[in-house]
Specification:
By secondary structure, the chain is mostly helical. It has three domains: 1-121, Hypothetical protein af1432 (Orthogonal Bundle), CATH 1.10.3210; 124-206, no CATH class; 213-382. The chain is built from 15 helices and no strands. 73% of the residues lie in helices and 0% in strands. 24% of the residues are buried. It is elongated. Its main location: membrane.
């Protein structure tokens, strides 16, 4: 078996066509793993596990030549020649051939042995990588046809296939079916998403988009509101910094010098200074500028994931790259609107942090100042000053 596996790996490396991106060695190794997993679950004899091993390796070798239709027959024919060479009895070879042919869709396995290879072959329908796998299958099909298949059309075809398909073995129904049902829901979401994008693309082809004054007004007003709110927050923070600076100056210059005469006021003084310092720290944090990396990669511009409207994203870029990126954004209204949306979104995130810090500053000042004044009153009313 090890010799056979080494030979098969070598054949995949030498004969596998690059455009066959789904029915490749990775797919075959997964099938071999699954037939062994299910076979051991049913406690099949060692000979049956070996036959499943051979069937798993040979079931898709028809794709070595890029053939899609009738690849099961190709696998069965190769099984006849190479397994005879390995010295397997004719009865076992015929059983392996029958299992390979049973994987032809629609699958019609006659027994548990054939059900295992059939269920393993379509394990990807229940896999966590289902959507990625179906896109690879789409790409492979497009290479075979020599034309592009619309994503919505492909996904709807996959949906129909999953609706008509059913697993055969008890093991697959128990362990594969739940994953398949989950993937059906994911597929529905992907179909809706693809249909929306296709509709959007069709509209774009039908007519060039005109400037929408309402949208532009919305962006302008929203950005203006964000900036005004940011300015208000900065002003409030400046007020807190100024007030607390004055209070600390008075306490340090006047009160601290009197503590020797009035030691009872030590704790209230500490409370007041701590309050002012805490409020000042949070107010300063609210106004402290955040330094960003200042550069956007050409790849993020190509993927339309960058925002060149904010200086913090481009101040370290050279003029040539920045100009190129801006032209790309101007020429694509979707890219432009997405950049404006990102700009407003992150402005909002910054505002949220700023106002949270500012709220903490005001809370510390309000409660701390009240507690400090109360402590001063308590000390003044209920504690006699030390007599020297």
């Amino acid at each position: 078996m090890k010799k056979f596996e080494s030979w098969m790996r070598e054949m995949f490396a030498n004969r596998q066509m690059p455009e066959v991106c789904y029915h490749n060695l990775d797919h075959t190794l997964l099938i071999v793993e699954k037939v062994n997993e299910i076979g051991k679950y049913y406690k099949l004899p060692e000979q049956d596990l070996e036959d499943l091993f051979y069937a798993g390796w040979l079931h898709d070798v028809g794709y070595w030549d890029g053939i899609a239709e009738g690849h099961e027959k190709q696998g069965a024919d190769l099984a006849q020649s190479c397994l005879t060479e390995l010295g397997l009895p004719e009865e076992r070879i015929q059983r392996i051939q029958s299992a390979i042919l049973a994987t032809k869709v629609p699958q019609k396995p006659k027994d548990l042995f054939e059900s295992i290879i059939c269920d393993s072959d379509l394990y990807h329908l229940s896999s966590n990588l289902f959507y990625e796998q179906t896109l690879l299958l789409k790409k492979e099909k497009e290479s075979a046809l020599g034309k592009e298949i619309p994503l919505v059309e492909w996904l709807n075809g996959t949906k129909s296939f999953m609706a008509s398909h059913h697993y055969h073995s008890e093991y697959a129904l128990k362990y594969f079916q739940p994953g398949k049902e989950k993937n059906k829901l994911i597929l529905e979401e992907k179909i809706e998403e693809a249909a929306f994008l296709a509709k959007k693309k069709d509209k774009k082809k039908a007519k060039s988009k005109k400037s929408d004054r309402g949208v532009e007004t919305m962006f302008r007003v929203t950005a203006k509101n964000h900036l005004e709110l940011s300015s208000i927050a900065d002003n409030k923070a400046n007020i807190m910094i100024s007030v607390n600076s004055i209070v600390i100056s008075i306490v340090v210059t006047v009160l601290l010098r009197k503590l020797e005469e009035f030691p009872n006021f030590t704790i209230p003084a500490i409370l007041l200074i701590s309050t002012c310092l805490g409020a000042m720290v949070f107010a300063i944090l609210a106004t402290r500028p955040k330094v960003t990396h200042g550069s956007v990669s050409p790849e993020s511009i190509d993927k339309k994931e960058s925002n060149l409207l904010y200086f913090g994203n481009f101040y370290e870029m050279n003029l040539k790259d920045y100009t190129k990126g801006m032209h790309a954004m101007i020429d694509d209204s979707d890219f432009l609107y997405d950049s404006m949306i990102r700009d407003i979104y992150f402005l909002g995130k910054v505002l949220a942090v700023k106002y949270k810090l500012l709220r903490k500053s005001y809370n510390i000042f309000m409660f701390g100042f009240v507690i400090s004044i109360i402590s001063f009153l308590i000390v003044s009313l209920f504690f006699e000053p030390y007599q020297y």
